């Protein structure tokens, strides 16, 4: 029984000590489930361990023969191995949990990056109406429509802020917990903050340009009306 238990102990320690690391959410969840199964197996061995330890201690009690001294050393190694495997499991559990959190953060950060890229794409394509041309009334209406569209876009910026803020809050929690990848997480979060701020500043700047353009359109329309009136006179 002792030989069998020590073989299992060594085999399980080797399994826990593997340095594989999850590369995505699915793999992280799978590895945590496999690690949980190891814990359940360890719990199933608890009664066997307790019986062997009790029987072993009774067997070597008061014995001075070399064979019994050797058995006493094996029992000591059994205790050390049992304690070590629990420590190893806890350390690996912590590492795998951090691995899952990292994959969750990277997934959420990627979604936030897609959102920010969509905002950037809208701002890059948005036009400022020309003040030239004969269809002054059409240009005026076009300017007013562009302002409405842009104000609606800024409203979506405010609405989507919560999604970005959630990612940033998650990153700060991981950093506060001394996550092993906290430098990478902090850099990613900083990039998200910078891109969001740039998009928001561009949005306000372009809104001001659109409003300035509308004022110009209105001024030019007033000039046209005055010119027509002077012409009539």
Q: Helix/strand/pairing class, anyone?
A: mainly alpha
Distance between the termini: 117 Å
What share of residues are in beta strands? under 5%
Question: What's the overall average pLDDT, rounded?
Answer: 90
Radius of gyration computed on alpha carbons: 35 Å
- State the helical fraction: over 70%
Shape call: rod-shaped
- Number of helical stretches of at least 4 residues: 6
Could you name the ranges where pLDDT drops below 50 across 5 or more consecutive residues? Answer: none
- Give the biggest beta sheet: none
Tell me the number of strands. Answer: 0
What kind of oligomer do you see?
single chain
Order of helices and strands: HHHHHH
Please, could you describe this protein's structure?
- The chain has 233 residues and is mostly helical.
- The chain contains 6 helices and no strands.
- It has helices at 2-17, 25-44, 46-60, 66-125, 136-176, 182-232.
- Helix 4 packs antiparallel against helix 5.
- The N and C termini lie far apart (117 Å).
- The relative contact order is 0.09.
- The mean pLDDT is 90.
Write the layout of secondary structure elements.
Elements: H1 2-17, H2 25-44, H3 46-60, H4 66-125, H5 136-176, H6 182-232
Helix pairs in contact: 1-4, 2-4, 3-4, 4-5, 4-6, 5-6
């Amino acid at each position: 029984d002792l030989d069998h238990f020590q073989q299992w102990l060594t085999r399980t320690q080797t399994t826990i000590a593997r340095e594989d690391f999850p590369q995505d959410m699915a793999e992280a969840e799978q590895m945590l489930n496999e690690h949980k199964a190891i814990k359940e197996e360890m719990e199933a061995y608890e009664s066997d361990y307790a019986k062997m330890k009790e029987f072993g201690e009774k067997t070597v009690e008061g014995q001075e023969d070399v064979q019994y001294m050797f058995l006493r050393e094996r029992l000591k190694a059994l205790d050390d191995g049992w304690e070590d495997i629990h420590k190893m499991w806890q350390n690996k559990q912590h590492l795998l949990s951090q691995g899952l959190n990292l994959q969750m953060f990277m997934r959420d950060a990627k979604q936030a990056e897609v959102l920010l890229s969509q905002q950037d794409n809208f701002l890059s394509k948005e036009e400022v109406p020309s003040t030239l041309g004969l269809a002054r009334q059409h240009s005026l209406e076009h300017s007013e429509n562009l302002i409405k569209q842009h104000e609606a876009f800024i409203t979506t910026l405010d609405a989507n802020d919560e999604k970005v803020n959630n990612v940033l809050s998650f990153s700060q929690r991981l950093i506060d917990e001394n996550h092993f990848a906290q430098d990478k997480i902090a850099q990613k979060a900083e990039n998200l903050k910078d891109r969001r701020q740039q998009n928001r500043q561009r949005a306000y700047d372009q809104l001001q340009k659109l409003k300035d353009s509308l004022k110009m359109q209105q001024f030019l329309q007033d000039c046209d009306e005055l010119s027509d009136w002077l012409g009539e006179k």
